[in-house]
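Appendix B: complex inputs.
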Amino acid sequence: MSVLRENWRVVVLVVLLLGSTVALFVPGAPPGTTANETAGGDQLTNLQYGIDLSGGARIQAPVVGMTAEGVAVGPNEEAATQQAIADRLGVDPIDVEVRAAQQENQNGTVEVLNGTVTNEEFRTALQAEGYQPSTIRDGVTQATRDRMVTSIRDKITTSALSGGRVQEVNSPGGQSFISITAPGRDAQELIDILEERGVVRVYAVYRNDTTGNWTHQQVLSQDEFASISNAQNPNNGGPQVPVTIEQSAAERFQSDMAAAGFGNGASCNVEASDHDSVESINGTCLVTTLNGEPVFIGGVRPSLGQSFADGSFANDPQFVMTTTSMDEARELQLSLQAGRLPADLDFENGNQNTLSPALADQFRTNSLITGLLAVLAVSLVVYGRYRRREVALPMIVTALSEVYILLGFVALAQYPLNLSHLAGFIAVIGTGVDDLVIIGDEILQQGEVGTARVFQSRFRKAFWVIGAAAATTIVAMAPMVAFPLGDLSGFAIITIVGVLIGVLITRPAYGDILRSLVLDE
Amino acid sequence: MVAFEVPEVDYTQYSNRQLIAVPLAVLAVALGVLAVTFAMTGSPVALGNDFTGGSELTVQSSDSISQQQATDIFGDSVVSVQQVSGQDQYIITFDDSAEISTLTSQAEQAEGITVLQSGTTSPVFGADNQRLAVMGVGVAFLGMSLLAFALFRSFVPSIAIVISAFSDIVIPVAIMNLVGIKLSLGTVAALLMLIGYSVDSDILLNNHVLRRSGGFYESTYRAMRTGVTMTITSIAAMTVMAIAATLFGIELMASIGLVLVLGLTADLMNTYMLNVTLLRWYKYEGVNR
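Resulting structure:
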């Protein structure tokens, strides 16, 4: 027992090594993975590879748009303002986003999500509507960027792009952009997917009076929608998406609906998530599909039904689709817009990278060989310097275990590995061995170590230098973690975590190992 | 296998002035190179695509590709063609005048060429990267300096660390300019790493001389024995990484490795000539003032 207590640092090291083995090799061990998941990784380990090492594309681009801030628009004026500004600028209403102030004493924002409008035109349009914006700047609001990230994520998931990652990246004091990574695709394919539109159809489902069978009749198609307003949550009525039907289609739509028996309204108890296609729905419902898949199923309110029956609907052809939550309403809006993103991405002013899986494979093997060669070089130097296997061997083993624990950490965090991270690994081997050399020299080269107390005091002296050196490395790397310089932040994170593992775990453990070696002599 | 032992340098043979002249001269030459580059190009360092904007293709080709052939295929936007040693792969760099989608389709139409990698950075993005990289290196350097002062709390030993770290960064950057390596995000990462690495041996030296008992020369020799081993170990690792990665065509790792080799070699000189001298002056003359 006392042996274990004296060498508790070695015990911690061994426990962490075992833990890393589990994280690396037991399928499904890292949280959020399943035993048979292989996407983006390989079969052997739980490591995730980024596009450098598995092939794929990465696109980083700002969002197209302009924001007017400090616009005094009230919560009830959003829809009207949106329409008015869109008309003045000659753009589609969905390219204008109006947000009223969220709190008292604050002003709202108006965004134009269309690259063709100039700053001057936008200001003129706002002023013509009686608004005095405090500033008009390039870029969009946080809320719109959040919606972009959600929408792109949805699109990527529905296009069966497994392992894709979408995130917002902010550069301090600079612009914000959206970063999209997709394994196994090239950048052009990814752009095509982002720009791809779906097909929206609306069906009336009802029981045929004569045959008794359920009928699924298409009553509206995509181009028959005049406009789809933004999802909103008014005080009465709950989360909803208002839609307007083209005047030319309104008459036919209302007579179809009346003929299908919706004249008195209809209640519907079918969940969209339970159905893959409109054909399997048996209930008196209005069903909206995107690419054939039901995205909204609802009944018809008696008042709306009445307006179909008496023909008054065509005078003001709009209705609302009500959902249970605001998230759902946003998603429905996106679906109704046929998967159109809230705004375009400015690919011209971003960056793109594509790496073929063949080259990525080559990088993976070769960087592994490079790493092993570096370890070999370090080992030779250390052995050549000390010429004592019992000093050099634990040094090399300790340095390697540092890398192993770091790998375990990376597997556990499901952090996608790129080339920059591998360079970080090699840097960690370098600093690791440096520190072990400091410990080794301090203890071995100042005369005999007689007692455990002498050992302890020398070890503490060595540790002061190691701690100071580690602190400078962390300070030097820290700014890169916060900066979204793609490759750099990965390198910095790996180096910092590696240094921390080294200082807190492996280097103290090496001290314990060395102590038992020198005190045995 | 060759064993090595760190030789004991007899510092008493050299005056402070003699010792410090060499690293200061090298630093002056390096700063001169940066100044000349600045005067000629408007930037002290040759900036790569990551910072100026531009595109890059890695292609596999059955026939060898010369600069001329690349210009025939892709037009005037070609900046350079570089063969991955020993393989039928070529890295072609373009300025920001060409669209990456056009370049990719031009390459795909050309006979016997397969595109393995394509990347493009817009000038706007590059300018952002430039600003952030300067800020990053600046903040890192400042943080390191403050930490050095906090650790030793006396001016000369702390400033010795700061000057030698500065020189460790400037010398490799100057050599990069001379041999035509452009600054990329990878080399910036290496420069940051260098701040961390180079300070190790400086802290070790300061610690031995200032905080331990024993004479100056004995302490210095002890610190040297450990410090030189450390730096040589790191140089060995980075040399292997630079060579292997160059052979394999992994640009990022090759440039990180190369910059670290240059910087660590400069660090050997700076630590054991510049730093030692400043400490000796501080120990024998500075303290008494």
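Residues 420 and 491 of chain A are 5 Å apart (CA to CA).
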